[in-house]
Amino acid sequence: MRLIILGAPGVGKGTQGKLLGASYQIPNISTGDILRTAIEQETELGTKAKEFMEKGELVPDDIMIGLIQHRLQFDDCENGFILDGFPRTVKQAVALDGYLQSVNKNINYVIALEVAEKKVIERLTSRRVCRNCGKDYNLITNPPPSNNRCSLCQGKIIQRSDDTKETVQNRLKVYQGKTKSLKEYFQKQGKLIILNGEGSIEQIQTRIRSFLDSKDR
Ligand code: AMP
Q: Rounded to an integer, what distance in angstroms lies between the CA atom of residue 182 and that of residue 15?
């Protein structure tokens, strides 16, 4: 199973991807998480990515293409993977297809989650994450424990620096401008599945699973 989860920031790509990855026992690869770790560890990649991420801009394609090709060669991708946050431009999608073809693989489905913009802004600005393990919290729907420590690992719970209102608005603008044409790209390949991303985490997971199970039979 090789899947892409597509959608604007805040539609729940990460949450749904992690759940799917756990049930299929394949990695959920979040390019945003990889970049955030690189920033935290002050690597060369982190230094390059930081200035773009803080403004809500996309990190240049060449960096991202190199990063994902490297990650897809890890052993844990042998039986499949879920991509969360990649590709974000048509150039990245073409490069991904080219790389997969070169190793006789392909993407099975691209699941696009759709959520009204107002809701996305609300979800992102109220999102909090564990700095240590990345577990998601939300001030409205899933509040962090009162000591602000992660219930899984006791790590500190923080707001991502790009989840502030101004940056969120720019990220959505960037998404509308660049990433939307990706849908057309995958539509032409007959791989695009558009699903409603509104509802509870469980409802959305069931929606995705029902689709995938129907294809499995
Ligand atoms: P995310 O966690 O997916 O919302 O990504 C956070 C930020 O990381 C984005 O706003 C971009 O600055 C950067 N980023 C993540 N994935 C990509 C990508 N595939 N292409 C370019 N920039 C990316």
A: 21
Q: Bridge partners of 6?
A: 112
Q: Was domain 2-116+175-216 assigned CATH 2.60.40.1180?
A: no
Q: Return the best residue to mutate from 88, 113, 121, 127 for the ligand 1 pocket (most ligand atoms within 8 A of CB).
A: 88
Q: Which residue is catalytic, options 2, 18, 48, 160?
A: 160
The model's pLDDT over 33-53, given as tens digits with 9 standing for 90+, comes to 999 999 999 999 999 999 999
User: Can you give the pTM of this predicted structure?
Assistant: 0.89
How does pLDDT run across 188-202, given as a tens digit for each residue?
Answer: 999 999 999 999 899
Spacing, Cα 85 to ligand 1 middle (Å): 6
Mean predicted confidence (pLDDT) in 81-103 = 97
